[in-house]
Write a structure and sequence with these properties.
Layout lengths: L1 H6 L5 E6 L15 E6 L8 E3 L2 E10 L1 H10 L3 E2 L5 H15 L5 E8 L2 E4 L23 E4 L7 E4 L5 E7 L2
Parallel strand pairs: 6-10
Antiparallel strand pairs: 1-2, 3-4, 4-10, 5-10, 6-7, 6-8, 8-9
Length: about 170
């Protein structure tokens, strides 16, 4: 299925179906011809579909709490990522919208000594930069693109950054 999703540029869902519902081999397929149709995601205007979710980059500068409030107003949360592909997608979404890898808030936050995604999903993938998280000065919110670099950082939640929201279609 990854091949099919890749052929759809990771942006769309795909329908996969056999050429014919009739089994010409009497129960044994030696070859299966597959056709797939890329279907645009069903996101609202301004949102971008990826992996079954809709994302939007907001260039306004807000602290982490206000950014999350803005995302909730739009029916979502600050974005979480669970794979290199999702992380890369979010970075490229920012680049496409802003023309650079602008520093931005995503939905990770430290709760005591445990890192969590604000959307409640498992904090199962993170691409921390070397030496991070360092919790310097109470840094306990997740920011990406520090200084425009491919860098996941723990930053002080009161800093003002752009942000990425995610919601269901």
């Amino acid at each position: 299925m990854e091949y099919v999703t890749n052929r759809c540029n990771w942006q769309n869902s795909c329908t996969v179906e056999a050429k014919s519902p009739v089994d010409p081999c009497g129960g044994i397929y030696k070859y299966l011809e597959v056709f797939y149709t890329c279907q645009p995601g069903s996101c609202r205007p301004g949102w971008t579909w990826s992996g079954g979710r809709c994302f939007i980059f907001d260039s306004s500068q807000k602290n982490w709490t206000d950014a999350e409030s803005s995302c909730k107003t739009l029916g979502g949360h600050l974005a979480s990522f669970h794979s290199t592909a999702e992380y890369t997608f979010i970075r490229e979404l920012i680049y496409t919208a802003a023309g650079s890898y602008t520093p931005a808030w995503v939905g990770g936050r430290e709760n005591g000594t445990v890192w969590m995604w604000i959307d409640g999903s498992q904090f199962d993938f993170i691409n921390w930069a070397k030496g991070e998280p360092n919790n310097a000065g109470g840094n306990n919110c997740v920011q990406i693109n520090l200084k425009g670099q491919d860098y996941v950082n723990d930053a002080g939640c009161s800093h003002q950054f752009s942000f990425v929201c995610v919601r269901d279609p």
